[in-house]
Specification:
The structure is a single chain. By secondary structure, this protein is mainly alpha-helical. The chain folds into 2 domains: 135 residues, Ribonuclease III domain (Ribonuclease iii, N-terminal Endonuclease Domain, Chain A, Orthogonal Bundle), CATH 1.10.1520; 68 residues, 2-Layer Sandwich (Double Stranded RNA Binding Domain). The chain contains 9 helices and 3 strands, in the order ααααααααβββα. A 3-stranded antiparallel β-sheet has the order 1-2-3. A hairpin with a 2-residue loop joins β2 and β3. The longest helix has 32 residues.
Length: 213
């Protein structure tokens, strides 16, 4: 990943998954960089959207940002940089298809962004992120079922929205989650997803269909 311009040790850290670190004597891994990169990404995307869409409301900007920083988009960007093939993964993760798992790819991309920020600062991070995400910048407001459901709930008396994990199945390296969406303490809809976020989104879609019918 020559485009990053990172020192070898920092790049290696950004690409080291915890599974690999644990198999090799508790080496440092990329979770702290992931934490930092998540914050850097949110800031840069937020500023970009603020400039790009001056007529959008806060809610519209929030919906756009959610679409850009969601797991699916991050994983797609990571795949476009061939990040999966460069990750240092434990044997179990490799066997379980970790190089292609969206949640792992998304987290690794955030770790890389954190490393870029540490080495090159905000300007360099902005340059890379805007280049990587330009393809995913939507001129039309993206659908955000969770935000739409929240708006509906706010208009209801005693409206309180909550998402709960009801069940988890599958192996640890590839779990599936069943999430229920509750309004005022009552289960309205439920759905399965390969991540909690995906299950919550689908549950919100199901709930909207019910409350609008």
């Amino acid at each position: 990943m020559k485009e990053l311009g990172l020192p070898d040790d920092l790049l290696r850290l950004a690409l080291t998954h915890s599974s690999y670190a644990h198999e090799h004597g508790a080496l440092p891994h990329n979770e702290r960089l992931e934490f930092l990169g998540d914050a850097v990404l949110d800031l840069i995307i937020s500023e970009w959207l603020y400039e790009e869409f001056p007529d959008d409301s806060e809610g519209e900007l929030t919906a756009r940002r959610a679409a850009l920083v969601c797991e699916d988009t991050l994983a797609a960007v990571a795949q476009s940089r061939d990040l999966g093939s460069r990750l240092l993964l434990g044997r179990g993760e490799v066997r379980g298809g970790g190089r292609h798992r969206p949640s792992l790819l998304a987290a690794s991309l955030e770790a890389v962004i954190g490393a870029v920020y540490l080495h090159g600062g905000l300007d360099r991070s902005q340059e890379l992120i805007r280049g990587w995400f330009a393809h995913y910048m939507q001129k039309e407001r993206p659908e955000n079922p969770k935000a739409q459901l929240q708006e509906w709930v706010q208009g209801e008396p005693n409206g309180h929205l909550e998402y709960r994990v009801l069940r988890q199945e599958g192996p640890s390296h590839e779990p599936c989650f069943q999430v229920g969406v509750f309004v005022a303490g009552q289960l309205v809809a439920q759905a399965w997803g390969k991540s909690k976020k995906a299950a919550e989104k689908q549950a919100a879609v199901e709930a909207l269909q019910k409350v609008r019918s």
